[in-house]
Amino acid sequence: MSKQTILFIFTSADKALDGKPIGWYLPEAAHPYYALVDHFAIDSASPKGGLPPLDHVSVENFKDDESVKFLEKDPAAKKIWSETKKISDVSAADYAAIFVVGGHGPMIDLAVDKDLAKLLQDFYAAKKPIAAVCHGPAALTSATKPGSSESILSGVKVTGFSNSEEAQTPYNDFVNILPFSLEDKLGSLGGKYEKGADWGAYVIVDGIILTGA
């Protein structure tokens, strides 16, 4: 029996509003990939397709075995992060679940990508798992329930990169660098935001919505 396939979503944004370099965050793709690849096939997509921009700070900060293997030593993994399809060309019907890779990039493009919003709505309607980590939940903020203007996050327990964590980064400006506060945005959509200790692992599963910080 062939494996079911999970779709990884990568950002195509390489700059914050002020021009600071951003992208996808290495361990937030590598660690989930190796947790899943023995059990599922993995595919990938991004708004522009092709090679998504990698946050090189994450390469410098994470030299663990899985991150290094994912980036440099595993041809199958390299294909996932270097040859993404366009989001507009994929269908929820072909996948068992969707996962949004973190990094500051999703705050810029995935949060307002109409093709992704429609794709997420299709996953939601099919009751297929929707997952995101760190800044990745920003990608879920424009998706609404089918036939409604209500967010798919309304009434859902959710987590993601917190204001207190952002305050410790060079991106702590929700006007000139980032377009919004992720923590505040999740709450404004009716999400029941929760967090753990800063920089600690924290995961929430509420129905088909899975979010991590």
From TrEMBL:
The record's Pfam families line, in alphabetical order, gives: DJ-1_PfpI
NAD listed as a keyword: no
Q: Which InterPro entries match?
A: Class_I_gatase-like (IPR029062), DJ-1/PfpI (IPR002818), Prot/Nucl_acid_deglycase (IPR050325)
Q: Domain named DJ-1/PfpI: which ranges?
A: 84-162
Q: Which family does it belong to?
A: Belongs to the peptidase C56 family. HSP31-like subfamily.
Q: What is the protein's given name? A: D-lactate dehydratase
Q: What does UniProt give as GO cellular component?
A: cytoplasm
Q: Name one GO biological process term.
A: methylglyoxal catabolic process to D-lactate via S-lactoyl-glutathione
- Recite the UniProt keywords alphabetically: Glutamine amidotransferase, Lyase, Stress response, Transferase
GO function terms (MF aspect): glyoxalase III activity; transferase activity
The EC number of this protein is: 4.2.1.130
Q: Which organism is it from?
A: Naematelia encephala
**Domain of life, source organism:** Eukaryota
Q: Which reaction does it catalyse?
A: methylglyoxal + H2O = (R)-lactate + H(+)
| Top class in the EC scheme | lyase
Q: Does the keyword Lyase apply?
A: yes
